[in-house]
Amino acid sequence: MAGRIELLREWTKEAVNLGIEIVIVHDIQDNLTQADLDALITELQSPLLQLVTGEFRSPGLARNAGKKIARGEWIAFWDSDDRPNPAAILEMVVQSSDTDSDIAIGNFEWFDETRQTIRVDVRRKMTLNNVAMNVGIWRFTIRKSIVNKIDFRPYRLGEDQVFASEAIGLAREINFYNKAVYRYYFGGSGHLSNNILNRDDLVLANLAVEKLLLLQRDGDAQSFLTKLWLRQRITMLRHSEKNWAIIKILKNAITIGPRTIPFSVRLFAAVDVLYLLIKEQITKI
Fold this sequence. Notes:
This protein is 49% helix and 17% strand. It is an alpha/beta fold. The protein has two domains: 190 residues, Spore Coat Polysaccharide Biosynthesis Protein SpsA, Chain A, CATH 3.90.550; 89 residues. Strands 3, 4, 5, 6, 7 and 8 form a six-stranded mixed beta sheet that branches. A two-stranded parallel sheet has the order 1-2. Strand 1, helix 2 and strand 2 form a beta-alpha-beta unit. Helix 9 runs antiparallel to helix 10. The protein is globular and about 55 Å long. The C terminus is likely disordered.
């Protein structure tokens, strides 16, 4: 979290002023970060702000520690190096409560730290199908009754995607909120996804998603999990020179894939993922 304490202080103040409880979980990295967090707690002096410190060694286990003491009816999981929008998230939760939803999923902005540019995925209508392309748990807000039934896996990568998939499987109703509720920072040097050692955990996450996929019978959920499964497989190959393997995965998804999944679901998932890959390459030009 080095260099990001000011960003954390900014949105923590906003959230507390709006009456949102914040549980900061510090997975001990260095004494300087601990001192900064202690100073933040002292500065705000709010009963809505709690600090949990421990050696968790994974985002998943850290989140498990935080959710155990969270008291709100709705729970979100935000990263300290990003920028949530507490006011927009609160509005999303109110809307979701009014519709008796169990999960709220908002839109988000991408912030490229290298180029210092912001872009947002503009869609006429958000659906579970297109959320599958960017399943960051930070864009989800979930009822505590669902959160209490699931634990994060101890992975350092992909654990949030598995958790979100399990939550979706338990939800009766999902509310999609088209406004941006979160700014996701990427391109910096400190992200866990940049560490090649963490990608072994993405393999475990992919296997977990595949098991959920084989058990799923709902058509929308099948499509969501199929696209997520494909997306994870391709991410695992992103830094490999075997680019042909991406095409092979897409082909296998259509012709082989889990046999319980209808051919049409596999075909549309593969086409959507291929479209996203092409779109990403154009954006980089």
